[in-house]
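Appendix B, record 7
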Amino acid sequence: MTSSTTPGLARFNTLVDAAAQAELHEVCASSAWVSKLLAQRPFTSADALFAASDAAMAELTTADLEEAMAGHPPIGRPKPGDPTSAREQRGMAGASEELKAELLELNLAYQEKFGHVFLICATGATGEQMRDAVKVRIENTDEVEREIARGELVKINRIRLTRLVEGE
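Structure tokens (predicted):
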């Protein structure tokens, strides 16, 4: 990313707090993450925003992570009317009914084991890649899986923040 201020970043920096909070909440559902980023505005560059996002994500408690994950729909079932989750899960668009059914079954087993949705940065991933990832990750311990999910949230947040600073 660039180190200069983009028009999208300049716009974000000048939003009133309530509007900036709403935009950040669209990026990540964790209120602790949103508060940490709001407190650091204005950002001098997209890189500074990404660094603040990564640092805030690293500091999230287990409860904060659960709140962040709760904002994500299950893979293969984007929120109706939500262009962000539909765009991010585009890799499932051409999936066979068999793959969709298998992923639903794996999602339910994962959710039963860990108590939250299977979280993966789905942008650019195929349905088969997402299925294979859940098959591997369902074998993890809670602690290992929580840290993998944290890393996936970092990637998702960066993609969403990039769209925000580019003014999309």
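Remarks on this record: The first helix runs from residue 7 to 14. DSSP finds nine helices and no strands in the chain.
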